[in-house]
Amino acid sequence: MSHLTEAQVAHFKEQGYLVVEDVLDPEQDLNPVIEEYAGVLDQLAQDLYAEGEISSTYDDLPFGDRLTKIYAESGRVHAQYFDFSLPQQNVQPDTPMWVGPQVFRLLRNENLLDAIESLIGPEIYSNPVQHVRLKPPEHLCPVNEDTGRVQIGATPWHQDNGVVTEEADETDMLTVWFGLWDATIENGCLEIIPKSHREGLLQHCITSTDMSRGFGRHIPGKFLRAENSVPIPLKRGGVLFFHRLNCHSSLPNNSDNIRWSFDLRYNPTGQPTGRSAFPGFVARSRSNPESELHDPEEWANLWHETRHRLSQDNDNPTFHRWKTDDPRCA
Ligand SMILES: O=C(O)CCC(=O)C(=O)O
Ligand SMILES: [Fe+2]
Q1: Residues whose beta carbons lie less than 5 angstroms from ion ligand 2
Q2: How buried is residue 244: exposed, middle or buried, by Cβ count under 10 Å (0-12/13-18/19+)?
Q3: pTM for the complete prediction?
Q4: Considering only CA atoms, which residue is closest to atom 7 of ligand 1?
Q5: Which residue puts its alpha carbon closest to atom 8 of ligand 1?
Q6: Residue from 131, 161, 213 whose mutation best tests the ligand 1 pocket (most atoms within 8 A of CB)
Q7: What are 121-137's pLDDT values in tens digits?
Q8: Which domains does the chain have, with CATH numbers?
Q9: Can you tell me the mean pLDDT for 58-74?
Q10: Average pLDDT, whole number, for the chain?
Q11: Which amino acids bring their CB within 6 angstroms of ligand 1?
């Protein structure tokens, strides 16, 4: 059991975030996931090689160099291939994703759930807003021809409440962020603004101007107190927990290796997830343990069924509330 102390819970409530070292055991909890992903990368390499997009499968390279080389030579970031979620539009019957058993095992990690229980209570739902992020060094990353920017880089300032629909505004959604390897200032760890969760939901914009960092949906600099930001480097095994209204972004990856992280979310069971088109599951229930999902195949099937359903739908579900032409963004 590794429940949090009262002081840790108080820190979370006051500051809107909490760093806890050694929640996950690198060898037992993270290495199996890393091994599973080696197989996913191998498959990607073989697929791209068969399609003539790359001249070698680069199977003699270590994971990070291999991924970077394959992205660079194919000229594309293949993020969706690794992600345990689906894109927000244009889902096809064969849209790639990775919903493997070791990922599921990590979503249900007991130590992680103990810490989460201290923050949101004993009825814990795995919210489907979840991602793996594999970011190549920026100097080796393929560039988007239209914008001239790297295809995957620094994450702009935002609040996670801003990436879900209004129905989850009262949901006690907790973000759980950790590195598969060490996250450093150089390789692009997260930055957060302490106490920013006290100021409510801020305006997010999807214009490409006035970017405080990165691009895409973001909180413009004029609405932020970015001068108060704090970088959160994390050793393997450490976890950053934050409130749905905490303002955060990531630094760019200025290192020579990939930056590799998971960001997961959990909320008390029964509250809206804010992404109802995607499947979640009961990760822990003290009142009704029978309702917990323990079978990795069942979990994978939930995602496969969702992919099938969305690929048949002509209407894309709504994922957030922000409009491109909002006058507050002008
Ligand atoms: O890892 C990143 O770059 C962004 C993560 C993030 O925004 C989150 O965990 O909510
Ligand atoms: Fe976020």
Answers
A1: 160
A2: buried
A3: 0.96
A4: 249
A5: 263
A6: 131
A7: 999 999 999 999 999 99
A8: 6-24+105-329 (2.60.120.620)
A9: 98
A10: 95
A11: 133, 155, 160, 175, 177, 190, 248, 250, 261, 263
